[in-house]
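Intended use. Records like the one below are meant for learning the mapping from a protein sequence to its folded structure. Do not use them to infer anything beyond what is encoded.
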Amino acid sequence: MRTKKENKEEQLEESKQLILEIKRVCEQLGLSQKELAKKIYCEQNDDDNEKGIKDFSSAFAKQIQRPTTQPERLNEYLSVISRLPEFKKSDLVRNKYIPLGHLSDLMQNEMLKISKELDEKFRNKEIEEDWEE
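Structure written out for the chain above:
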């Protein structure tokens, strides 16, 4: 059984990974955070209210800076992003771990570590390629 502290640490780590993914997708789509926030707002709302967009953009910018942002909210943003026409036209895929309950907590944690290491290596490879260009 996991302690509250362990759950909190896991949640913070998950949020950090989701924030990195949002930023990576934003960069690879060639969008600023403000442009991405506007697209998310318009997908989630039936209006193009400038004040609503501005307020959401400000909140979005803060949320993707803080690892304390709830993973559920970040996953919701990634879900909206993955439905955007720009995302569908790109060759991007969304990384998403879905626990199926077949693995023990220990095995799930080890799989997450492996996944994080692969994500890190992938990001480093992208950075190297950018520097070479």
